[in-house]
Every structure is written in structure tokens, then in C-alpha cells.
User: Fold this.
Amino acid sequence: MIRFPKPIQNLIDQFCKLPGIGPKTAERLAFFMLRQPKYSIEEFAASLSQLSNSVIHCSSCHNISEKTPCILCSDKTRDQSKICVLAEPHDLAAIENTGEFKGLYHVLGGVLDPLNGINPDRLQINDLLAKLQKNKLVEIILAFNPDMEGEATMIYLNNLLKPFKVKITRLARGMPVGADLEYTDEITLMNALKNRKEINGN
Assistant:
């Protein structure tokens, strides 16, 4: 078995930790970086360093941001009576890019996945309940991927939110089953938002 110099092997090992990256792809990426000029590698390293030094989570919506509260939560022109609940920050970006939703957001930080140890206490659910108690909300939109974990999370939240007597909707079925929000085109997402359905009233 060929052994690479330690700096290269360390880089390969780090690339292997990324989702969807296997050993062969990690090797190709490492050797690609090796061929880059020094300034390019330094820029890449600086960008990675900024992730931990400059990017934080908004104290209100839990989206990634450079300040808290984030620019969306600080915008008083947005509809304060509606909250769109999502799993991840990239889902928020997908919804916001449609230009259709003008309310606020709440990022859970994942979906329920007991097999991988993600239970309700690992998500930002208590903070969502606190918002319901403090604010006069008229609608909560549950926007999750139409897969097993997304559906389970939606059902759990729907049951949890029922006592608050607030309208609970989900994205319309314009999205194909198994699709991810972040990869869905803006027109499909826009239609899903426009035609969202109340969960309690089919």
C-alpha cells in the first residue's frame, strides 16, 4: 500500500470527513490542492478559518450569520406574524431566494432521526415554543424535505403546536417525494409556498 507524506495524508483524511467524499475522491482533491499556487491555498485556508471565527448562529432564528440578530430578524418590514420552520440554513436560503415568503424563519438545526441519535432535545424546538408564547403568530409553515425524517418531524411538531391554536401549514405537494429543498428550483418552491396547505384541514 502506497503511503503518502504525512501532510498529504492528513489532508486526504480531512476531505474524507466531508459528506459524499470517498478515499479516491479525497486523494484527487488533495493532489489538486497540491498543484495550486501558494496564494490560492492560503486563500482556501483563510476561508476555512473564517468559518469558525466569523460565522455564528442568530440568537433568534438560528440561521448562520455574521451578527446576531441576523439581517432577516432585524428587518422590521417583514411579517412578524408568520414563521417558516426549516431544518437547515441552506433550506432557508432556498425559500428566501424565491422572494415569495416575507415572514420570519426558525431553523431547527436538523430533523428527527432517532437511529442517528437526533431526538427532539437536539433540535431548536423549545425556542420555537417560546416564540409562540411570546408573539402573536397567525401561521407556522412547516417546510421540510418530503422524506421519512422530514415527515416524522412535521407530524411531531404539528402535534406539539396544536394547543397553541395557530394555523399550521405545510408546503404544497408540488415538490416530488424524496426531493431536497436546497436543490429544488425556485419556480417549484414558489408554487409550493403559494399553494401551501393547512395540516389540520386537508
Summary: The longest helix spans residues 38-54. The two ends are 60 Å apart (CA to CA). The longest strand covers residues 79-86. The mean pLDDT is 90.
